[in-house]
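Exercise 7. Predict the joint structure of the components listed below.
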Amino acid sequence: MGKVLLLQGNQACAEGAIAAGVTFFAGYPITPSTEIAEIMAKRLPEVGGKFIQMEDEIAGIGAIIGASLTGKKVLTATSGPGFSLKQEFIGYATIAEVPIVIANVQRVGPSTGQPTSPAQGDMMQARWGTHGDHPVIALTPASVPECFTLTIKAYELSEKYRMPVLLMLDEIIGHMREKIEVPDYDTIAKPVRKGPRVAPSEFKAYQPDSDGVPPMADFGTGYRYHVTGLVHDETGFPNGSPAATESLIKRLHDKVDRHIDEITMYEEYNLDDAEIAIVTYGGTARSAYAAIDMAREQGIKVGMFRLISVWPFPEKEIAKLAEKVKVIVVPELNYGQMVGEVKKAVEGKVPVKPMSKYDSEPISPKELLEFVKNL
Amino acid sequence: MAIKTIGKHCKGCGVCVTFCPKQVLGLDALGKITVLDETKCITCKQCEMRCPDYAIFVEKK
Amino acid sequence: MEKLIEKYYRPRLPHIWCPGCGNGIVTSSIVKAIDKLGLDQDKTVIVSGIGCSSRASGYLDFDTVHSLHGRALPVATGIKLADPELNVIVITGDGDGTAIGGNHFIHTARRNINLTVILFNNNIYGMTGGQFSPLTPTASKATTAPYGTLERAFDIAELAKAAGATYVARGTAFQSKMLVDVIAEGISHDGFSLVEAVTQCPIYFGRQNKKGDASAMLKTQRDNAVTVEAAKKMTPEQLEGKFTIGVLHKSEAPEYTKQYQGVIDRAQKGAK
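Solution:
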C-alpha cells in the first residue's frame, strides 16, 4: 500500500534516497537544500542508517565517498557555493570510480548570490566544474514526483557505472509542494552494485568487465585494494605511463558514451506537429507546459523537448528535433548555458533562440508565451 | 647470525653505517649497502630498525 | 621485519621516498603496531591524503585510500561511521594534515570518532620540493621562505588536545620502538587519537637548513627528544630547544560511532 502525500521537492528527494536504500548522508547546511539534510538526519537513524553533519562542504562529500567504499549507498546535498567546494571530490569519485549521488539545489550565483532565489546557473559547472576530462551524469527533475523517481534513478546509474551522479534541482523544484503518490518502499527495486566474482587473490580492483565497469569490492571483505585519485592501471596502483593514462581516461568516458541511449532521458510534450520547439529543463519546464497549453489554444504549434538527463546531453535527439521544427527556443534561468549545447547539436539547421532570465525570478508562462509569439 | 641486504631497496643514505656500533657495514662504489665484516656483528639490529628502505635484515642463526 | 614486510607490504618496493627519508621508518612502526595488536588485516583500513607520507598507503596491504590533499579525515570519518567494525588508521603529513587539512583535523578531534591519525612531521612540504608548512620552525629556510619563515609553528599535539582529542602522543623515527608503542596504544584507544611522528627530511628540509644528512638529523632527534617522565624533572632552561615524546594526553569521552548507535536506538523506538 502506497500513500498519497503533499511533499516539497527536497523532501521527495530525501525520501527517494531512502526508498533507493541509502543508509548514509553527510553534508553541511546550505540554503536552499538544507531540508534534505534535515530530513535525512531524522529519517536515516529510523531505518538504521547514519547521518553526519560535517565541518564543511568538502568534508561532506569526502565522508560519503568513504562510506560508499564500505558498500553503502550515500547522498550529500548542497547548493551553489557548496557545489563549487565539492568539485575536487567529484573529480576524485570520477577517477576512483566511487558511486555517490550529489543533490545540488541551484540558487542565484556567482558566489553567495541570492541564496533563496532560483537559478539554473550551475549547468555548466555540473559538466565542467572539476578539472580535467571526465564524463558526467546529471539529472534535472521538473516536479515533486520526479524528484522521488529521479533520485532512485540516480542510484541505478551511479551504482551501475561507478560514478558520481548529480541531481540538479533548482530552488523552484526544491521548495515547491505537490501531491505525490509514494509506493511502499519494499516494492521499489534497490539498485545493486556489481561485486567481485573472483577470489581476493585473483582480484584486480580496476579491471573492467566488457561494459567498461570494474566490479567493486566493499572495504572490509578481504579484497584489500587501493583507491587513488592518481592515474592508475587495472591494479589500482599509480601508473603514470601515457598508455595507462590514455586507457583510463578513455574508459571513464566510454562507460557513459557506450551506454548513452540507456542513460539519456527526456520528455516530448506536444511535439508531434510542432513548428516551434521549446527545449528546457527543471523548474523552467513547469512554465513551458503552461505556456504551450496557452499557445495551443491560440493555434500556435509549439511543443517542448524536456531534458531529464542534461548530461550527457541528448545531442542526437536534438539534432533530429532540428529537422522537424522551424525554430528552437531555450528558456533557462541563467545568462545562457544549455542553449550553447542546443546550438552545437542543431548545427545551424534552424535558428536557436535563447530566452535567458537572470533576475532571480522564475520565467512565467505568460512571459514565455509572449516570447514565442514575438518570434 | 646472517646479514641479508637488498641492493634494489637501498638508496645509500648511510644511516645503517652510522649507527652500527661495530663498523660491520659500509657503502660500496655504487653507494649501496655492503657488509664489511660479518664476524663483528653483535645482532643489535640497529641497522634493520633504522633502515628507512627495508634494505637490511639481521637474523640470528 | 622481513616477515612483516612479506605480510603487510604490497610487492611494490622500493618506495618513492628520498635517500634517508624517515617515512619508511615511521611506516614500519605503524606496521609493527598493527602486528603487535594482531589487528585483522581484512578489517583494517588505511586512509591517507596527498604528499610524501601519504604515499605510504599504497605500499601497505590493507584496504587503502590515497585520498585528496588534506582530506583523509573526512573520508576516514565516512568509512568509520559507515562501518564501525573497521579499524581506521589515517596517515598524513604536516602540510596535508595541519594546513589544507587543518579544519578537518580539529573537527575530527572534536567529534572524538575512533580513528588513529599518524602525522608524519618532517617540517616541510617534500613532494612539491621544500616549501614551509605550519609545522616548519620559525626562521627556517624554505623555497617559499628564502629569507626564513615568519610564521610561528603549531604545536600540533597541543592543538589536538585543545580540539578534543582523547589520546595524544609524540614519537620520533629515532626512538622507533617507543613510536611503535604509542601508535599501538593510540589504535587501542577508543576515541580520536593523534600520534605525531617526528621524522627527517634530509633532502628538502635538511639541506636548506644545514641540518646535515639523515644520520645527523636522526641524532638531533635523539638529542632533543625528552620523554614526558624525564621532562617533569627538568627546568625550563634545561628544556630549551627540546621536545617531549611519549603519551602527552589521555582522557575519556564518549566515542562518536557508539553515540550514534544510541541515536539509532532512540530513533527506532520512535523517541527523540
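Discussion. Residues 294 and 369 of chain A are 7 Å apart (CA to CA).
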